[in-house]
Fold:
Amino acid sequence: MTMSHTTSNIRLSAAVAARSALVIAGTVLATAIIRLVLNGLFNRHWQAEWQVVFGLAAIFGLGWFVVTFVYTWIKLRANDPVEAILTREPSQDDMHKAPLSGFVAMEYYSLILNRTFVVFVAPEGLYGWKAEGVVTATQPMYFEPYAGMLQDPELIRDREAIRRLSNLKGGFFIPHSAIISVDVVYKQKWGMGPIPHSGRVRIGMASGRSREFILLGSVDAESIRQRILGATSGGRIPDAPHVSLPYVARYQKKIWVPLFVFWTALSAWYAWNLNETWKTSDWAFRVAMLVMIGVPLPLLLEFVVQSVRFTDTEIQRTTRLGRVTTFPYSAIRKLSTASDAFVAIELSDGRKLKLHSWQGNPREVLSILQTKTKLTVGASAV
Structure:
């Protein structure tokens, strides 16, 4: 590391720490002023120990400055090898090679900890660069700069830079000869909070171990699976499953069954005790009782989907009361992922439909949608 680079890191760390320390010191002073005003208004006491207040502000500010300075400087130091790799001049041989594809993914380990990788799919295997350590849901879009790196035409051709990134601490390389299976799990990962993700890719290896990567952002999980398998099989991308239409994706998650039983039992209990309950209750309770008995059952039956039917021209959504809503393929303008569904469909008229992994086979459903709309997950129609 050069002296100028060291000086630059120190200056940047000091600037970040100073701004943070001023906020902490200002918070201490603001708290003291608010307390003084409240004491003056309610207790007629307008005096304050300003020497103590400014002393506390200085102590907290200075302490926070030191902590933030050290933390920021360590982070900058740790990022120096990455910066050196990304700013190196790529070889001309690499620039003439075909660009690699990739994705940004989170991996859980030690039960609750997580780390974020930028994974590159190369002919020889998967290169993984550990871009972030443990992150929280306070910044749900933290991964966007890394997703943007995959759009850099120089980086995705620079094989040497990708190899060096994967050799940094926490990185990995999985040779394609060690990959025996690649599966997509469309069920959303518990604990991700508001961080958008598009399901998971589970990679099985010849050693018996497996690694599961949570795909961050709105990406096409099946397309990523095909790219990995295509590279594994020497470039031949597996065919999408052939699906005969009409295709019916029936609702398999039986949440409505216990709810239906609960409301039926509650209604029966009220009916059994109707005379006594009605006489001993006031009108407010009587109205509430009628609403509780009468409203939930038809609402439950109306809003729970019985089936989703795919025809040659449209999607037909049927509720348990028999109401059918149609969604023409020609009107679909976007396929994306949603926090509670493996794919969300947006139509040009503003309507939306969410399809869940328990509504049919996700691979077959995606094959139908992509064939009929010519869209991939995460892309919009022009």
User: Anything to note?
Assistant: Residues 3-43 form the longest helix (41 residues).
